[in-house]
Amino acid sequence: MRKILGLDIGGANTKATLLEESNGLITKTVLKSDYFPFWKKTKDEFSGLLVNYYKILSDSFLTGVGVTMTAELSDVYTSKQQGINTILDAVQRVFKDIPVWVLSSDGYIIPVNEVRNPLKIASANWVATGFLVAQYLEDCIVVDVGSTSTSIIPIANGKVIAEGLTDLDKLINGELVYTGSLRTNVSAIVKSMPIKGKIARVSSEFFAQSADVHLILGNISKEDYTVETPDGKEKTKNMAKARLSRVVCADSNMLTKQEIFQMAQHVYNQQITEISEGINQVKKSKYQINQDIPIVVTGFGKEFLAKKSAQKINSHSIIDIDEIIPEAISLATPATGVAVMTANEIEGKRVKWMQQ
After folding, report:
1. Cβ-based burial of 129 (10 A; exposed 0-12, middle 13-18, buried ≥19)
2. Is 196 exposed, middle or buried, given 0-12, 13-18 or 19+ CB atoms closer than 10 A?
3. Which H or E element spans position 18?
4. Cys staple from 310: which of 61, 295, 332, 350, with CB 3.0 to 4.6 Å?
5. Looking at the DSSP assignment, which residues form a beta bridge with residue 155?
């Protein structure tokens, strides 16, 4: 039996998937996710997080580790290269006697000691998601809505055909939409709000975030609100309403419950519009993607953002990733994808779930 750990190291959330595999069959999958804001943490704390994954998930026995990351973009680092080097140094220290592979944006999984171009492994976690879905569907567009951003990944003939290999390129061509289910500043989503039959401009302060919007609307629960609040106060609907009221320089005593709810709905609608515009832009790419192509939804925001965005563009086929993969992995799709890619590399062939 082999144990393979997949790590998706994000700037705010780090996710891990442990696969147990034998003779090409995945017999067990364990997922773990931790809110880990790199801009507030030390190198030792990150190493401690990795040690916990090593001990708790794998019982201190691992055959291999697969890594993908987006944390190199964190402003705690002066450059992406510094971030990549720091993160990989920590991974190698913790898993010093275990083979480690790193995912690159061009679809290769590379032994950590053979990485020649560190920037190629920057923000490549979408590749793992696309790879995983492409094992099951030959033609589709994957919409992965996380806490911070949305990846839109086109797949054709069983291969990822994304035009952009860097975040910059992906922002340009619609494959990356920087809106998410929890951490997006409301003032980055909308520039005005409908209030009392008029339109109010919004403050650019970080008063409220998308988690407040979705808590007010009932899209998430208090327990789902896993990130810090903008004001450091409670994760309740009443406090979320107070935070959202401040976006128009008011408070919850100056606005009615219905007015605050309408504000939240306005922000929500704008998120759906932005994601749906990204999907349409990808459909109109140089690859001339079939307009009736299925949309596969995954990530924490799959139900209330990814699926709603696909419905907005009248998609004829919307598929939940948990319908095509035998395990419920939507909350850690990139970590699972890189774990499977690593297992393939170790096994020398494609591994499959037992239920498949």
Report:
1. buried
2. exposed
3. strand 13-22
4. 295
5. 140, 160
